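REVIEWER CHECKLIST
Item 1: Sequence provided? yes
Item 2: Single chain? yes
Item 3: Sequence as submitted:
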Amino acid sequence: MTPLHGPLHTLAGASLLALATVAPSRYGLTAAYAALARRLRGDGRGERWLRGELGPVSWTAAAAGALVGGVSHVLLDALVHPDVLPLAPWRQGNALWVPGAFAWTHTASVVLGVAGLLAWVGRGRGGGAPSA
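Item 4: Structure as written out by the authors:
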């Protein structure tokens, strides 16, 4: 059986790929956020707090987002796919794989994502929202 997940589904591969995406992410997201903020400001749609969130992306934020995203992707995939080798090339095998984890891992991800979205929106609609 040929593995579906290759070298980018290792911690080393994901980290290298994450580092390669830092600059494009920083510049690309900064440009996209600026365009979205202009659009929201131009037609009166959107909340003021949301426009305030759409500022330039720092190098730290771009690097942290890329690394956390890449590493967490590998770790979550290692839970649900037996062919992921998270510690390759130093160690073969997948000690993180949990048979039957596919459904609960996805359910937990959705629940946490919705909770994060609600917290972000709630923070923005509260009194401490940045003004733009």
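Item 5: Key structural point noted by reviewer: Residues 28 and 115 are 27 Å apart (CA to CA).
Item 6: Recommendation: ____
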